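User: What would this chain look like folded?
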Amino acid sequence: MIIILKDNAQEKQIDELVEWVSGFGVKTNLVNGVHQRIIGLIGDTTRIDVESVQAKDIVEQVKRVQEPYKNANRRFHPDDTVIEVRGRKLGGGNLNVIAGPCSVECEDQILQTAIAVKEAGATMLRGGAFKPRTSPYAFQGLGKEGINLLIKAREITGLPIVTEIMDLSDLDLFADVDIVQVGARNMQNFTLLKELGNSDKPVLLKRGLSSTLQELLMSAEYIMAGGNSKVILCERGIRTFEPKTRNTLDLSAVPLLKHHSHLPVVIDPSHATGIAKLVEPMSLAAVASGCDALEIEVHNDPKNAWSDGAQSLTPEQFKETMRKIKAMSEFCGKPLDI
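Assistant: Here's the prediction, encoded as structure tokens.
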């Protein structure tokens, strides 16, 4: 349920209304939007009589919300959420580009790539320390050592770091990571999501291989229900019948997610297509669709990459792609956050 307040509502009146509705056992969330103030009620609101609420002097309108996600719902939070990460802002009108290798392989590789993407205009650095792989014999990542190398790369470049968590037991290792990424395979790992909800660390949540947008938003709700509002949604392609690409990039997810939710939306064209030459056109299309950030894989030597080399751009290719991304972002009125 959403209670829209009148413009002349006084703080004392609002406090009294919040106390009254809280007596029905629901959680309240007061949101001071640009154009209106609302009180979002989360929980079992069936015992609350809409007409009784509407009769209050300070209430403009009362709406019942049918969607099962509440905290992530734009009706509860009309304005875009802006998440600040070491001075960078995700959401709210700017564009960020998160770039780096699929996996951290060694010090030279991550440092060379980090410096290259920074020079090309990337605003954040990605790199996998823990890697979910289809084959148990494939490279699984360097673990703690990989995180330490990412931190070193951040010290040199100043770029905030984004890396994926695989297991709840590794959470302590992410204390100095700027954004914790939850991969597609863990999107419905509810135990992990609940624990991340207890932290104040920004979480980049990737859409599952065969998940609907509502399921993605419900996973975000798990994190937000624990008190962590710093959730970033990521469309990284879904599995369809088409075999020509690794996945099918659902660009319609951007405007749809932005219509239903206030959370920032990221597009990952690298995992979505699995083909390096498709990354640039899909990146430009993603910017045009209104995304808040791109997550692009870049490797200093893709042909010899230990994972996902086929979808990784060289530093030279990334530099050219960034030139076009900057032009597109300016054309769309969403400048790069530099």
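The mean pLDDT is 93. If you want, I can go into more detail on any region.
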